[in-house]
TrEMBL record:
Molecular-function annotations in GO: beta-galactosidase activity; carbohydrate binding
Name under which the protein is recorded: Beta-galactosidase
EC number: 3.2.1.23
Lineage per the UniProt record: Bacteria, Bacillati, Actinomycetota, Actinomycetes, Kitasatosporales
Record Pfam families: Bgal_small_N, Glyco_hydro_2_C, Glyco_hydro_2_N, LacZ_4
Catalytic activity: Hydrolysis of terminal non-reducing beta-D-galactose residues in beta-D-galactosides
UniProt-listed PROSITE patterns: GLYCOSYL_HYDROL_F2_1, GLYCOSYL_HYDROL_F2_2
GO BP: lactose catabolic process
């Protein structure tokens, strides 16, 4: 038996973009033309192959009464509880044999049926035409209306329109859409995400009155020297353009120059206007801005801009890429509230409404085409469609569908050809077409290392050192490239705990003007809500090939709760710098924005002793132009302040409500030490007393044979002992292709997760109990000679830990500290860094203060469990009836399971309380870095195996 493509289904494997669709044009919502949304419940039938069923279902009168139903927009694999197939996650591997343009015979095919009547207000069918618009269908669709085939198309995240006026009826219209999961188009859509077939964006029927606007291009530039804007609207159908606020009234094709306020991401001034053609009025939202390459820099309105960006995939944990407006708005609000000013729409044009929000709230956008052929890297890019002329029409079709749809958005400042598609003639053709069609924006593509086709040098995951070389123009490369500005289109891989190293990158971007910023990979974890697993990731649906939790690498958890990475990012990219030198009575305020002054902000100070506010007031900050700084005098410390460690906490908050956050929203902050900490002292006066196998020392009770602490006062404890292991993070484990040292693997090879504790001596001395041990893994010569020295003043108990590495340590330690167990603990209070987790290279957002949480509240819900939740710089903490003071400050972690259980868990639902609260007090932890896709922690954040001494004072809490 042989399988073959029948003539009926040949279009599926045809490299062409399709047939029957109208030419691409601007996407807009008419003021007066009627439209009908065809979103809602559709009849649905799934077949295993493209040709299993004939097209009789498209005929009028077909009875689909026994079919299933799905929601449109939607992906059928997310709607049938597994009955309608399931999602597949691969990063770059094609989940089918690579034999372009052929696709597997097993090609899940969803027949969709929708019967509809025209609404009562639909104009007479004889007047004007009608257009049927699909905003997104993955990956290939064939469409019939009332039994007549109207076309087929590919290009999943791009709009396709069909003229259907002559086919419409008043009632009982039958819209039939056959969607194939795999098509030739799939080869162009190998983005790192779930493969999710379906009609996942809106389906709309648009009335097109006679004389309606068709396509139009709003050109609105800004001359920063004269302060004027020039408007010209080119329209296929002539008409009049009015902008009442500017007194503009002119014909299409004509231009007017008037004084305007420019549009920027910081101050997104939009002017309401209208295009009126004979048959239709179209609302315009005009933002005047000029994007140019000048002096080797990307300039907007004459100024260098710095992108503080994220890569945004469209994601919802239940609905996949079928996003509603509220979810899109939530993304934009969360971005604005976290100081983000730019988005790369990785790796396809988003739902068009998202760009309206970017215009309105203010975000710079790199609009990226729906193109990735990453899987060809497996064969050295041989047969890559972007270097094969047969595919060029499909590439040009994609480029034009993006540009034509989105060209009227002021927020879009850069077009991107796509992602990870190698290089080739097809990409060059796309770049040429785009440059020619739209001279008012720049072109981006990362894979073009020589920048032949692009207007900027772009890279992903380059190390700090390399980025610095690029910033200093020491990176070599072609002459063309050397003259171009630089962006990191992806960096700081936000998978699991992390990213670390953000602040070190930001310093470089602020120091070198060629470095125009960067886009964190990525915005949100693509976890799929799952009844047993919490959130599913690759492999959880039994996929043959998959890339595990590499799909959960965002700054937001799947439910859109900000992860610590986002909180860190907000701090690192804050638009106002606030810092000072301890003790000099001033604070330095820097306006780090590109356009705006400080008038939207108000500043305050708070004087805090031991984290408790003593007095607060407003700080008068002079108006500062972008880039300017001033030293601002702090008030005298409050006379009545109690003694103790004190800080000035300075905040910049919104002076008034904005469209994206309420008045008082904290935009930026800083702390200045006012009076240093005094470390706990304890006079060792108590003596160890030995009796019946038990040693007591002050409030401490010990096993006399092992020297193990068993209780502090009335609080039973599982004895503290040295701990060097952490449940490796995704960044510790690193990506398989990483050539740099992947410490997570080396640690495990060395056996740091199975350290043995050898007891050498228990010595009860005059004023101390000393326990000598050696902590080491089987099969290795390395070890840590570790001495626990206990002293007491009768009320409190001090533990001093002294460790000395032995042997040849060639790796840093994951952590260095002690772990002990409490039989009960819930509330946790501490003075130190908070409120959230922080590590050596992800600690900018940690504020010194008095914090309170619970053991459960201290867990960070990474989709794949791993080390999390450490609070840094803790001076003292109270939990489980104990007060613990550190000398020096320590990292605090408390959880209801052991590190070993955390390490073994694949999903959060694998974690169950084991009856003990396990507390880690760390002298240090290894940095976090970004090695799940980028560089590891910088050397200064490595936790070297070195002699160390640290201590804790334990007392029963009052
Ligand atoms: C880079 C991709 O562009 C992006 O889609 C995503 O896969 C990211 O990596 C990792 O999460 S490609 C890089 C691995 C070379």
């Amino acid at each position: 038996m042989s399988f073959r493509t029948t003539a009926e289904t040949a279009y599926v494997e045809d490299v062409s973009p399709g047939s029957g669709a109208l030419p691409p044009r601007a996407w807009y919502a008419s003021s007066d033309a009627t439209s009908l949304s065809l979103n809602g419940r559709w009849r649905f039938r799934l077949s295993r192959t493209a040709d299993a069923e004939d097209d009789s279902f498209a005929a009028e009168g077909y009875d689909a009464g026994d079919w299933a139903e799905v929601s449109v927009p939607g992906h059928w694999v997310l709607q049938g509880n597994g009955v309608l197939g399931s999602p597949i996650y691969t990063n770059h591997l094609y989940p089918f044999p690579v034999d372009p343009p052929r696709v597997p015979t097993e090609n899940p095919t969803g027949d969709h049926l929708r019967i509809f009547d025209l609404p009562a207000d639909w104009p007479d069918l004889a007047e004007g035409g009608a257009v049927l618009r699909f905003d997104g269908v993955e990956s290939c669709a064939r469409v019939w209306l009332n039994g007549t085939e109207i076309g087929e198309f590919k290009g999943s995240r791009l709009p396709h329109e069909f003229a259907v006026g002559s086919l419409l009826k008043t009632v009982d219209n039958v819209l039939a859409v056959r969607v194939h999961q795999w098509s030739a188009g799939s080869y162009l859509e190998d983005q790192d995400q779930w493969w999710l077939p379906g009609i996942f964006r809106d389906v709309t029927l648009l009335h097109r009155p006679a004389g309606a606007a068709a396509d139009f291009f709003v050109h609105a530039s800004y001359d920063h020297l004269s302060g004027t804007g020039t408007l010209r609207v080119d329209s296929d159908v002539p008409g009049r353009v009015t902008v009442p606020d500017l007194g503009i009234a002119l014909a299409t094709g004509e231009s007017a120059t008037v004084p305007v306020q420019p549009w920027s991401a910081e101050v997104p001034r939009l002017y309401a206007g209208e295009l009126a053609t004979e048959g239709e009025r179209v609302p315009l939202r005009i933002g005047f801005r000029t994007v140019e390459l000048s002096d080797g820099l990307i300039k907007v309105n004459g100024r260098r801009v710095l992108f503080k960006g994220v890569n945004r995939h469209e994601w919802h944990p239940e609905r996949g890429r079928a996003l509603d407006l509220d979810t899109m708005r939530e993304d934009v609000l969360l971005m604005k509230r976290h100081n983000i000013n730019a988005v790369r729409t990785s790796h396809y044009p988003p739902h068009p409404a998202f760009l309206d929000l970017c215009d309105e709230y203010g975000l710079w956008v790199i609009d990226e085409c729906d193109l990735e052929t990453h899987g060809f890297t497996e064969q050295g890019w041989r047969d890559n469609p972007v270097d094969d002329d047969r595919w060029t029409p499909a590439l040009l079709d994609r480029a034009s569908r993006m540009v034509e749809r989105d060209k009227n958005h002021p927020s879009v400042v850069i077009w991107s050809l796509g992602n990870e598609a190698g290089t080739g003639r097809g990409l060059t053709a796309m770049a040429e077409w785009i440059h020619d069609r739209d001279t008012s924006r720049l072109v981006h593509y990362e894979g073009d290392i020589d920048c032949r086709d692009t207007d900027m040098y772009s890279r992903m995951y380059a190390s700090h050192a390399e980025v610095e070389r690029i910033g200093r123009h020491l990176d070599g490369g072609t002459r063309r490239r050397r003259e171009l500005p630089f962006v990191l289109c992806e960096y700081a891989h936000a998978m699991g705990n992390g990213p670390g190293g953000l602040a070190d990158y930001q310093r470089l971007f602020e120091a070198h003007e060629r470095l125009q910023g960067a886009f964190v990979w990525e915005w949100i974890d693509h976890g799929i809500a799952h009844p047993e697993l919490g959130y599913a990731y690759g492999g959880d649906f039994g996929e043959e090939l998959h890339d595990g939790n590499f799909v959960c690498d965002g700054l937001l958890f799947p439910d859109r709760q900000p992860s610590p990475g986002l909180v860190e990012f907000k701090k690192v990219i804050e638009p106002v710098g606030i810092g000072g030198t301890p003790g000099d009575g001033t604070v330095r305020i820097t306006n780090k924005q590109d356009f705006a002054g400080l008038s939207a902000l108000s500043f305050s100070w708070s004087y805090e002793v031991e984290g408790e506010p003593v007095e607060s007031g407003t700080l008068t900050v002079p108006e500062l132009a972008p880039g300017e700084s001033a030293e601002v005098k702090l008030p005298a410390p409050p006379a009545a302040a109690p003694t103790g460690e004190a800080h000035w906490t300075l905040r910049a908050v919104l002076a008034a409500e904005t469209p994206w956050a309420p008045k008082g929203h904290i935009v930026a902050w800083g702390q200045v030490l006012a009076s240093p900490r005094r470390v706990p002292s304890l006079a060792p006066t108590a003596r160890p007393v030995s009796d019946a196998g038990v040693i007591t020392l002050g409030p401490g009770t010990f096993d006399a044979r092992t020297g193990a602490l068993t209780a502090i006062g009335a609080v039973p404890v599982t004895a503290p002992r040295l701990d060097v292991w952490r449940a490796t993070t995704d960044n510790d484990d690193g990506a398989a292709w990483q050539t740099d040292t992947r410490y997570g693997l080396l640690w495990r090879q060395l056996g740091l997760h199975r350290m043995r504790h050898r007891l050498d001596a228990v010595e009860a001395g005059e004023h101390a109990l000393t326990v000598r041990t050696r902590v080491a893994p089987a099969a290795a010569e390395v070890g840590l000679s570790t001495v626990y020295r206990w002293t007491s003043d009768g009320d409190s108990l001090r533990l001093t830990v002294c460790t000395t590495p032995e042997g040849d340590w060639t790796v840093p330690l994951p952590r260095l500290g002690i772990r002990f167990g409490l039989s009960a603990a819930d509330e946790v209070r501490w003075f130190g860094g908070g409120p959230g987790e922080a590590y050596a290279d992800s600690r900018m957002a940690s504020t010194v203060g008095r914090w309170q949480s619970t053991v459960d509240g201290m867990q960070t819900p990474y989709v794949r469990p791993q080390e999390n939740g450490a609070r840094i710089d803790v001076r003292w903490a109270e939990l489980g009836g104990l007060r613990i003071e550190g000398d020096p400050e320590f990292l605090l972690t408390a959880r209801r399971w052991t590190t070993e259980q955390l390490d073994a868990a694949a999903h959060r639902t694998d974690l169950t309380p084991d009856g003990t609260v396990w507390v880690n007090l760390d002298h240090g932890q290894h940095g976090i870095g970004s090695q799940s896709c980028g560089p590891g922690p910088l050397p200064q954040y490595h936790l070297r195996a070195e002699p160390a001494e640290f201590s804790f004072v334990f007392s029963p809490a009052d």
